[in-house]
Design goal:
With about 130 residues, the protein is mainly β. Helices cover about 0% and strands about 50% of the residues. The strands form 2 sheets. Strands 2, 4, 5, 6, 9, 10 and 11 form a 7-stranded mixed β-sheet that branches. It starts with a strand and ends with a strand. About 35% of the residues are buried.
Length: about 130
């Protein structure tokens, strides 16, 4: 079992920045790839960013590429999402999720890949 707790959400004006953090506890953090997803009101949850267990590879949705940066610290069991140049359309509940390392391809962009999820943190971007 892996417990995930997000923090760092809040309200910010368009163009501003926020840094989300996700603290993991339970099993060995470095045995998991990590992802961030978000869900806006009335919409389905969507992929935002992901990072492999080692931190070597990162992935982003087209909508956040160049503005967001995912990172992890395996010594501290944390994964972060630095969000810059925020837009009102970034308003959503943001979730971190953990996917166990498997021999097969890491489908980082699909929810089904991830086994453990946090409760989410609200991000609101106003004009």
């Amino acid at each position: 079992q892996v417990q995930l707790v997000e923090s760092g959400g809040g309200q910010v004006q368009a163009g501003g920045s926020l840094r989300l953090s996700c603290a993991a506890s339970g099993r060995t953090f470095s045995n998991y790839h990590m992802g961030w997803f978000r869900q806006a009101p009335g919409k389905e949850r969507e992929f935002v960013a992901a990072i492999t267990w080692s931190g070597i590879r990162t992935f982003y949705s087209d909508s956040v590429k160049g503005r967001f940066a995912i990172s992890r610290d395996n010594a501290k069991n944390t994964v972060n999402l630095q969000m810059n140049s925020l837009k009102p359309e970034d308003t959503a509940v943001y979730y971190c999720a953990a996917a166990p390392i498997r021999p097969s391809t890491y489908y980082y962009y699909t929810e089904e890949t991830y086994v453990y999820w946090g409760q989410g943190t609200q991000v609101t971007v106003s004009l």
